[in-house]
Amino acid sequence: MIRVVLPSGLEKVGGEVLGQVSKLMNSMAGRCEAAARELCPVRTGRLRASIKASREGPLLYVVEASAPYAGYVEFGTSKMPPKPFMGPAISIALAAE
Fold first, then answer.
1. Is the pLDDT of residue 78 over 90?
2. Please, where are the H alpha helices in the chain?
3. Which of 54, 68, 81, 89 could form a Cys-Cys staple with 36, CB 3.0–4.6 A?
4. 60 or 12, which is more confident?
5. How far, in Å, CA of 23 to CA of 97, rounded?
């Protein structure tokens, strides 16, 4: 499993600013999810289907690949080269801003 957490540190900000930051982070999490789904290698589709973005707090969003072998694909093993998809997805999501 791979979890990418998008923290903000702005929990004490209130009102309209909090809403705007939350909206921006939701958009970024969605872009990261879409990019990861596009970039991940596909054999059966299980890894791609396991990639989800979710809101876990007022300003805490998580993009996760929950397939049990996601880390092996992302980082490789002694017998398999890495095929990164989550790391590049974060870069793509940040560059879109």
1. yes
2. 15-39, 46-49, 70-75, 86-95
3. 89
4. 60
5. 13
pTM of the model: 0.82
Specify whether the CB–CB gap between 37 and 71 falls below 8 A: no
Q: Which two tokens stand for residue 51?
A: 């990639």
Residue 63's SS3 state is strand
Q: Which helix (H) or strand (E) holds 2?
A: strand 2-6
- Length of the chain, in residues: 97
Which pLDDT tens digit goes with each residue over 13-30? 666 777 787 888 889 999
Burial of 62 from C-beta contacts in 10 A (0-12 / 13-18 / 19+): middle
Contact 71, 1 (CB under 8 A): yes
> What is the layout of strands, in order, in the sheet containing 51-57?
2-6, 60-65, 51-57
Token pair of 9 as six digits: 């540190």
Amino acid at 21: V
